[in-house]
Amino acid sequence: MQTTFQHQGAGLRLQKEMMTAWYARQEQAVQTKLPIAYVFIGGSPNELLRNFGYELAFPEINALQCGIKKAAGPNIIRAEDFGYSSDVCGYVKNDIGLMLNDYQSPQGRLAKPDFLVCNASGCATYLKWWEALAQHFAVPLFVLDVPYVQGDEIPAEEIEYVEAQIHELIELLERQTGQALDMARLKTDLAYAAQTEERWSQLLDLATHHPSPFDSYFEAVFFMANINIFRGTKEAVTYYDEVLKELKERIDHGVGPIPQEKVRVVVEGPPPWPHFRSFWELFKPWGVVCVASTYSKVGGLWDQGFRHDPSRPIRSMAEGMLHAYCNWSLPKRQALIRSYIDHFDADALVIHSVKSCRSFSVGQADLREYFHHEAKVPTLFVESDLADPRYFSHAQLRNRIDAFFESLEHRKLARGGAGGGP
Amino acid sequence: MRQWKEEDPQRRVVGYFPVFAPRELIEGAGAFPLGLHGGGQQVELMFADSRMQSFVCSISRTTLELGLIGNLDLLDAMFFTNICDVARNLSGVWCRNFPQQQTIFLHLPMHPPGETTLRYLVKEFGRAHRTIATIAGNGHGTEPLHVAIAAGNRNRLLQAQLEQTHRSEPWNLSLPALYLLRRMGSQMTLAQHNQLLADALGRLQHSTVRPRDGIRVIVEGAFCEQPPLELLELLEESGCYVVGDDLARGLRPESAPIELAQGGDPLEALARWYTFASGTQSVRHAPPQQREDYLFGQIEAASAQGVIFLNAKFCEPALYDYVVFKNALERQGKIPFMTLEFEEKQSTFENLRMQVETFVESILFT
């Protein structure tokens, strides 16, 4: 066994380099005449837009970056002054607030869109968001409507509907850019996508180890950025090779994200970005490690086996767009969480409900009913927000989290297991 | 409704959640379409609170409560569409809590109207029709669909006539009365509703209510969750004639008829109507300019002097559209507007009354 770490911090270091370069390309987009396409994370047509020379921008990622860097609050207030209600999505308001402030952000000045692709997979608010931007910037908007996945078998007409829209998007891109689709490049990029998806799935599955080498919520939300932004590039494949080395090295050394893993949980729901660190700190004293999370699947449920397929380029892109976590019905989400609890040997479920995102949160209380009363899985339900710092009550959260894990610890002791304790 | 079902055990009832449910499709498959618009002030939340957070709109919580306390056990199926994330996810909550009922989810296309959208929707309607016909034990024949579409077209015509009467002589048909006539449609078949509307139109010809002073306004925002009747009464008592509205939007679709040729495919006709002729709605993708055109069209058609935004608390589609509408009115600078927020469960209205009276006076005395 090695006695020194060769790969420690490689994931975050490499990610920082890639993200910094990506934001720099956006900041220089006007000077370099680089066209910018705004897209959403879930089911994004990355490979297609790059095929026509677009750089991708993800306002959802801008919003979380603003949240984590404490800049979301002023943006949200600016949007509310403009007319947005305190009861609508904080991500939307953060972006509108940026728009009203000429896109000045902690990452520098963000790029404005030349083209808006509303890949509406799993969220109705996306439409209203992009409609507002299309009006403000007077740029073309393409709505790529993705039907809601209800059962295990997806009706052929739903896949065909998405596929037909992708063909319409290609025609529009060809008209807009004067270029034809480069099918050879698309197939190459989809092959990179599939390789990335394979590595990402391997990474997530490492959390089956005891102790888990990483936190599948508090760390995975960073690791996931690269598959969402850079999927379809060689760099993304290389990135996950490096992260896998880092995490396998942790396994070799028997270390995880915290000194001693005592409780393994599955987490449902997005993180409270403006209070990300302090939220994590509330769990650490109890030895809590997340071994699977649903938020890390908002871009796609590749861990469930889906892969882009260069031999069926358009069809597999259409299929991929359907399988974003929030585009799955609640019964499917419930079954997925149940499978995570079993597969990753979790002790409990933590549901973090955020006001901003009804797509995520409506139904979570019913999930709690199911897991607590029927599946008999200890379930903690806490509320705050993913973007709006005003909804985070540290003392209240601490009370609930402490009470839950104290109770869980007593149950473990009663069963003869190892205790935790803060 | 229970008694009606007991009279014939073969009868089937399909509940539907707003905004838009194709009643023709449900009736045409042999089931009774029962519109659910929440529990209003009639139901206290005892169980739904444990399944829906407090920041979720009231209509979804009270509809769920009605189910959980057994009031909706007469339903054989429940029909939802993708009007918003709440309604969409409520379909999943319904599915788990009421396994004895079939939950039917229809994804109405958000891609702009065109052949892609139409082709998909024909199949989606076909899937829903087959599901309901199977529940109703009615076979998959299309003749009942022809009958239902004809009844639906007559319903559109009668509703348009009623609205025209209301718009030209609002003193003869108050907003609450018009609204209740529409809402009755959620509790009866299209043919029964047509009878009711025709009867009301006949009676209105003999109405002799004297006009009073009032400003002409339109109301926007209450297309799904419905305001308490007291709030609608308050608007008129405070000096408004509400001569345009989007209350209970799904129960009074655009007046353009469904064009169904002899021997034509009724599902294709219904899908074509929805795709190309059913009009703009907050819950359907449209460029903001189209939404603005809709608003100004409403104002012009009603000769309105003001706009009252009646936004249901926590209703995201209404709250997003409000920004579009508000900014358009501010840019135009000619039509005054005010904004009220309501919940269906609301029971005190005095503050709202004062706001509306002030709004009316500001128009009357400037």
What does this structure look like?
The complex is a heterodimer of chains A (422) and B (366). With 422 residues, chain A is an alpha/beta fold. Chain A has 17 helices and ten strands. Chain A folds into two domains: 175 residues, Rossmann fold (3-Layer(aba) Sandwich), CATH 3.40.50; 230 residues, Rossmann fold. Chain A is globular. The two termini of chain A are 32 Å apart. Chain B is α/β, with parallel strands linked by helices. Chain B folds into two domains: 138 residues, Rossmann fold; 199 residues, Rossmann fold. The chains are: A alpha/beta (422), B alpha/beta (366). Chains A and B meet through α7, β6, α8, α14 and α15 of A and α4, α5 and α12 of B.
Largest sheet of chain B: 4 strands, parallel
Which spans of chain B have pLDDT < 50 for at least 5 consecutive residues?
none
Distance between the termini of chain B: 52 Å
- Calculate the terminal CA-CA distance of chain A, rounded to whole Å: 32 Å
Entry summary:
The complex is a heterodimer of chains A (422) and B (366). Chain A is built from 17 helices and 10 strands. By secondary structure, chain A is an alpha/beta fold.
